[in-house]
Design brief:
339 residues, mainly alpha, 2 domains, 5-stranded mixed β-sheet, 15 helices, 5 strands, 50% helix, binds 2-acetamido-2-deoxy-beta-D-glucopyranose
């Protein structure tokens, strides 16, 4: 039977909502996954999910896990109190979820939150020994689509099975620090000409009163204020979704529908990454690359950039990113004018 395109889309949407709904209720009524404990000691290895939720984990993990559990509970509560409408997910929404079938892991990648290094680590984990050192993998190679599998590539039953039994983790960052980091990386570095052409020229055309011809053509000198105007302009999201570098984690990873087992933070990247690798049982063979620069930001970059933004735009921007603040327990920045 041939179905019109609309019909097929509708069917896909229904199937999508079905698996997500099942998961959603499971996460509310029964936060402990239904796993069997292996009674033969040391015989078969536990999955990361079993290691996380079973009571007898190694001692050094306990402290870390308590704070991870706190974040998980806070996320769940925030979801309950701040999301009313039930959204519907389709496999297409799972493009940011990277799958490691070998270690039973699912990682939702968020750009500007150490995602290159996580992709490198996952390439090592899934490579069957072809790679051993994450830092030996060039950054651009880590981002090649097809080097890693995403959950959206699987069938609905396969997606369900993985969502139920794999350890799902995500790494987040203070939303405005992440945003400023994206701005600096994409608009103030001369080599990022693709972003200048694609977004910079448009931003300057729309938000600079009397642009020079060269700026209009190159789009390479967008100010942070112009970038903010572009973000809060209702036309921007009407035309297309935000680029993933400034899209909200809430929209990239659907943390109120997908029950993340570990919420790692950029601010505590090293211990949190270590906890994930321990749960995956690879802490002895693999070190998360935390090479200097990325983790050594002073956490105050956003304040310097927001000084020059008017209270009107600050407020609009905060509303735009509010869910990411609430869901991941980031407090309203002190530098935001309270007028
Ligand atoms: C949430 O943030 C507050 C303030 O930073 C902190 O004291 C608290 O421990 C955090 N809660 C969780 C569950 O992480």
């Amino acid at each position: 039977m041939r179905m019109p395109r609309g019909g097929r889309l509708f069917l896909a949407t229904c199937l999508g909502s079905l698996f997500v709904l099942v998961l959603y209720f499971q996460s509310i009524t029964n936060p402990e996954p239904d796993v069997k404990t292996d009674s033969r000691p040391g015989k078969s290895r536990r999955s990361p999910l079993q290691t996380l939720y079973n009571g007898d984990q190694q001692l050094e993990l306990l402290a870390a896990q308590r704070s991870l559990q706190g974040r998980r509970e806070l996320l769940e509560q925030a979801c309950l109190s701040h999301t009313r409408k039930r959204q519907v997910l389709s496999p297409e929404d799972l493009k940011h979820l990277i799958v490691d079938d070998k270690h039973s892991l699912i990682y939702c990648y968020v750009p500007k939150v150490a995602c290159t290094n996580w992709k490198r680590v996952l390439m090592v984990l899934t490579s069957d020994g072809r790679y051993t050192d994450p830092l030996a993998i060039p950054a651009n190679e880590a981002h090649v689509a097809g080097n890693l599998r995403t959950l959206s590539e699987f069938s609905v039953p396969e997606i369900n099975q993985r969502l139920r039994s794999y350890l799902k983790f995500i790494f987040v960052r203070e939303p405005f620090e992440r945003l400023v980091s994206a701005y600096r990386n994409k608009f103030t570095r001369s080599y990022n000409t693709a972003f200048h052409k694609r977004y910079g020229t448009k931003i300057i055309r729309r938000h600079r009163p009397e642009p020079e011809r060269e700026a209009l053509e190159k789009g390479n000198d967008v100010s942070f204020h112009e970038f903010v105007q572009y973000l809060v302009d209702p036309r921007t999201q009407r035309e297309e979704p935000f680029n993933e570098h400034w899209e909200r984690v809430h929209s990239l990873c659907h943390p109120c529908m997908i029950h993340y087992d570990v919420v790692g933070k950029y601010e505590t990247l090293e211990p949190d990454a270590q906890a994930v690798l321990s749960l995956a049982g690879v802490e002895g063979t693999l070190q998360f690359p935390t090479s200097g620069k990325s983790t050594r930001t002073d956490g105050n970059m956003a304040a310097r950039y927001f000084k020059h933004i008017s209270p009107f735009y600050q407020k609009k921007l905060f509303n735009l990113y509010r869910m990411d603040f609430l869901l991941f327990n980031y407090s309203t920045p002190e530098y935001l004018s309270s007028r």
